[in-house]
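USER: Study each token:
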Amino acid sequence: MKKIFYDASLAFKSERGMAKFVRNLVLEIHLRSDSRIVGLVNISSSKSDVRYLFLGKTNPIFWEQVVLPFFLRRTKPEDVMIFPYNTAPIVFPFRAKKILVVHDLIFMESFQNLKRSNSLKQNIGRIYRKFVVPKVIKNADLIITVSNFSRSQIAEKFNIEMDKIVVIPNTVDPIYKRTVGNDPSTGKQYIFNVSGEAPHKNLESLINAYSLLPNEIRSKYDLVILGVTSSESRKFFNMKISDLGLQGKIKLLSKVSDTEAKSLYENASCFVFPSLHEGFGIPLLEAMSCDCAITCSNTSCLPEIAGNAALYFNPYSEADIAQKITKVLSDCRLADSLRLNGRLQLEKYNYHAFSKAVDDLVQML
């Protein structure tokens, strides 16, 4: 029996986009393939549906560059190995078909074009990927990415044939479907953002833009930011908030459950997404699913993903960000139109679209 292996080391450690994608991808392959699926892990696991094989606890780089290739030497030509986190072993001493998932090429940006993170771990990861990916991507038998924008970028950057790159767009977890009858007008009114502390998330500009909002808007609406997890970044952004005199108006949340996140989307007056670069942007789908009006950047893949469901701004202009937030909050007809367009746009990324893309992939394995 053919075996499909995949690196499951991060799949259940995070709720970020890559982890969600690999969990959805593997479950869908499991439903559509007769192959035996084995997740390779560096922590003990008892997850259901898919078999997990514990290969020993070690650091991420040694795991990827030594432990995985050593184990995979025993694979057969008909087997498949999926590397789902934008990187893979430099040396491939095994015969299995190699599938590399590349969500975006943010890590290829220089520190001059995209500044360093406040998180040392993120900076190391970025340098590591920039070194490794050019060495491994052409050796992959197939490349999966999540948007047409990323597909074009990968093909151009690494001179790879487009037919070697498969697009499997993200989908949204059903838990984010809006609760019927929920009234977002009750309780404290706020602007909502989901991102992280990485520089391309552009949070510093969002905080500055919030400070530029008209007094009557800022006094009425707080800003809630979900996803700032590292202590270095929380310290940096809290100092920024303090310098602007916005303590009590801007709230930083690190991690919440999906149920809590859904409530935050549902009750937000608008959702703002100021990223400079994304490979997809799952929070956009979550906001649409929760019927939240969106304003977001006009860069990278975001116009492809949001379509007519967002009011766009230039993320390099804090004044433009502030202006578009003000417009969405002040124009009820516009906000209603964005919500309606969001329901229509979401159809492109529903479960059926995702499962069809995975079914096409299974036929290629």
Residues 247 and 339 are 31 Å apart (CA to CA). The chain has a mean pLDDT of 90. The chain is about 40% helix and 15% strand.
